[in-house]
Amino acid sequence: MRRPLTEEELVAAGESLGAALESGAVVTLEGDLGAGKTTFARAISRGLGVREGATSPTYALVHRYMGRRGPVFHVDCYRLHSPEESQDLDWAGLTEEGDVLLVEWPERAGPWLPTPSHRFRLGHAADPGRRHLDRLR
């Protein structure tokens, strides 16, 4: 049985992952509202050398942060009404220009989403201060 993580453990796991990610990685983060996707994305970004605090790009759809090796793009597809809307996000440009691409709610992006190199699902645990983190690939 998996052990639920505290927020501190989730952040540490994200920072460690970010420090180890290869350039060109596409990381998808699945899970319900409030499951910890943005917290995990912020920690991954920090591990990539992003100094500013990453915030949820729910309303802007895409945020760009400068990491050690180059831009880190953080995309939130939550507000997309249909997968066709994700065509306008210039996925090719994001992957070509960016060092790493982090995508929340990837299931809403449809076939235009670049192939993920790392997939994670986050979920609520019985203890409200803890989250489940599952690596899907």
Give an account of the 3D structure.
The chain has one domain: 3-Layer(aba) Sandwich (Rossmann fold). A hairpin with a 5-residue loop joins strand 6 (118-124) and strand 7. The radius of gyration is 14 Å and the shape is globular. The model has no long low-confidence stretch (mean pLDDT 92). The protein has helices at 7-20, 37-47, 91-97; strands at residues 5-6, 25-30, 62-66, 71-76, 100-104, 118-124, 130-135. The protein has 137 residues and is of the alpha/beta class. The chain has a 7-stranded mixed beta sheet, sandwiched between helices. Helices cover 23% and strands 27% of the residues. Helix 1 packs across helix 2 (37-47). The protein has 3 helices and 7 strands, in the order βαβαββαβββ. The longest helix is centred in the first third of the chain and has 14 residues, at 7-20.
